[in-house]
Amino acid sequence: MLTDLPSIHQDIVEQLDYFISTVSTDLRLLTLNPFGRKLCGIAADHDLMQQPLYVHNFHDKENYQFLLNIVFPHVQKHSYWQGSLCFFDQQHNCIPSHLKVLAHRDLAGTIISYTGIAHTQPSLDTKTLDELSKQLFADAIEGIMVTDTQARILKVNPAFTSITGYEAAEVIGKTPAILRSAHHGADFYRQMWQTIEENGYWQGEIWNRKKDLTVYQQWLKISRVLNSDGALSHYLAVFQDLSVIRSKDQQIHQLVNFDRLTRLGNRELLVSRFPQTLAQCRQHKSKLLVCWIDGGQLSDVNQQFGLTCGDQLIQLQAERLQQLIGPEDTLVRIYADDYILLHQTKAGFSQTNKLIGHLLEVLKQPARLGDEVLLPTPHIGVACYPEDGEQEEDLLHAAELAMFAAKEKGSPGLNFYNRQVGADYHRRALIRQKLQAALQTNELQLQLYFQPKVTLSNGSLAGAEALIRWHEPELGTISPADFIPIAEQSSLIIELDRWVVTQLCKQLLCWQQKQLSLPVISFNISARHLVEPDFTSWLLGCLQAYQIPPSALEMEITETALIDNEANAISKLQLLKDNGMRIALDDFGTGYSSLCYLKNMPLDTVKIDRSVVSDLTTNAKALCIIKSIQLLASELQLGLTVEGIENQQQHQILVELGCQQAQGYWYAKPMPAKQMALQLTGSL
Fold first, then answer.
1. The predicted structure's pLDDT at residue 259
2. Is the pLDDT assigned to residue 349 strictly greater than 90?
3. Residue 677's closest CA among 549, 552, 553, 515?
4. Active-site amino acid positions
5. β 605-608/582-588 pair status
6. Which of 592, 651, 599 is nearest to 626 (CA)?
7. What are the structural domains of the chain?
8. Burial, 453: exposed, middle or buried (Cβ in 10 Å; 0-12, 13-18, 19+)?
9. 582, 520 Cβ separation under 8 angstroms
10. 468 falls in which pLDDT band (50, 70, 90)?
11. What's the confidence (pLDDT) of residue 1?
């Protein structure tokens, strides 16, 4: 059993071939092991208490400052430091070493001492240094030339031959005058040699000549080499071919700042040019137009014809834009078929509008891609300095918002930024963000409301439509007319639909458990959701999970759900109908109102939109339309529900026409589930 560990540890330290020393916090040596004493030339009987030594005794000024400023502060934070460091023996000979410094702390965590452990790194002998020097001379990428004191060439390296074209045998014994071009006069060389004699070296750019008589620029440094007595023994010249370096710099500049597909500038060029352009505008008090250009249709081209055709479209757009811009303009491609144009001008609005109009017109021209001819739909958003912003980021953001506003109009167009557009965009972005958070956190911000449907013949409850309502703590109550279109622009509408269906299933199950008499409850599904591959399997699976029969529900869809993929939509609707679910065509009269849909779709009900009945009491044509739809629905054996009934006169006309069901504020506004439960106990 080990009983004297400190003594054993001390014996180990005494025997190790390492420099090991413990020092106090004021950097005085407390201990130094035998190997460390021998290495530094300190006698074995040197009493460190009587004859104190300090850390600074083992280091030059530079290394000591490194220890004070870097090493010890690092140890105080991280407990240890290690790295290469040179220290000195008592004769001030440098000892290269790898050093590790540790901190020792008391129970309170305060540092009470440090220990340094170093193992020496062997120095290079003269023979090894000579071999390294030879290798360095041979492998250097710079040309090297050694001359005697009379400037006669004694030796050149392989890089010299590679750069100048001269073999060593062709130049040895001659002077560097063989390399001179006619670009410099005698005064240049006289001043150069005078500088070498006064300063010991000269360096700078110089034009020299290769063996093939090509004149090129060098970066040259000529140094005096002295012998041990301080007398001149040689001259050493080291040079680089600047033409190669600058060519590579130009290639790097092209790769970094220019788009490889179009040769237009890229984001990096925009970032570097934008501040300069703004500075010029401030100085000359000129305007700056920042145009965000969307070429249009690239994603469609990539999907239908492939990426090669997409690249051809981008190249064509770049060529067309370049034809219209001036030498002072900056045109960059930032991604896909989106471009940024910076155009300085002092011209009036009409002239600048004319320029942007030309950009739009040239991009609208038919684009021939192989055998295909496309009609692009470009959009341009424009922001102006200083009216729309004074910083790069603000102007780019404003131009992008203006482009989005132009895009929302559908057809090719341009749009100038205005602050209302920006405010609307920010509100839409905030609503999108808040809605996503509400769906993910399952907070009670979103609620299901129900609006009853009545049987017109007797006023009884015929059904109800599940509607979503949203009260956001920061923004207040947000209308579905605001947040649903925003959700429809992304996959959020799918999450929203599925939230509604899931909550509806939970509510129906609750009502069933209370043994309430339930009419058919309708719910809305977006066109985007209907085309999802897993839509029907998810919907039927959700109903099965909550034990809700499909016959208890009616799914409402709009005509837009059928326009892009009618066959696919109809097959999904037929599958749901075969499982017992009722299908209603919502908002009839607001879209194409194609009678083919009524013929081909597996429908149970048609819902007439409120816009058709809003002027029912004053517009004979509206009355005629409802009569026709009511007769058509009856002949096709379809149910008919009229939405948006808001007064007694509208209600009475529908009764006289023999319409089956109606829905609107005249009967009941959308209500929360608790209030709807009261309606389920009897008629309205």
1. 84
2. no
3. 515
4. 643
5. parallel
6. 651
7. 5-120 (3.30.450.20), 126-246 (3.30.450.20), 256-417 (3.30.70.270), 431-679 (3.20.20.450)
8. buried
9. yes
10. very high
11. 41
